[in-house]
Amino acid sequence: MAVVEQLIRAENDGSISFGNYELNEKKKLENFEHNGDVFKVKTFKDITKLECNDNFLYESVPGTAVLGFKETEGGVEFSVEGENDAQITLGLLENTEYSVYVNGNSIGKMSTNLGGKLNLSVELSGNGAISVKVEK
Questions:
Q1: Structure pTM?
Q2: Chain mean pLDDT for the chain
Q3: Is residue 127 scored above 80 in pLDDT?
Q4: Would you tell me how many other CB atoms lie within 10 Å of the CB of residue 112?
Q5: What Cα–Cα distance (Å) separates residue 35 from each residue in 14, 15, 53, 71, 93?
Q6: What are the chain's domains?
Q7: Are 91 and 117 contacting, i.e. CB atoms less than 8 angstroms apart?
């Protein structure tokens, strides 16, 4: 399993990785600078949450490890893993329809609410990393 021991890190491809679902107590890291943005992560076994420039970006219940998280103009993509199935909430553009793919398979189109939040579930159960792609 590939938890992020330092809670958040920059990857060579410009993406970030974050989260450690193996922690029994909540840990957080603030003021992580990457590509001109400031990130804050909170993570442990029950929840993983990421903010960018004080804006909500990602949350999972229970906690997860997120690898290669990359935002584009058209959406986000990342790999996620955890010990249990997870409910993921993403902060995107408000009132926008997105196509959602899990492990390369379309799970349909979903729309964000007024706050720009999109909710999806992923089946993890310790099976390794699952890829998620959300695009306009």
A1: 0.94
A2: 95
A3: no
A4: 19
A5: 8, 9, 12, 12, 20
A6: 8-135 (2.60.220)
A7: yes
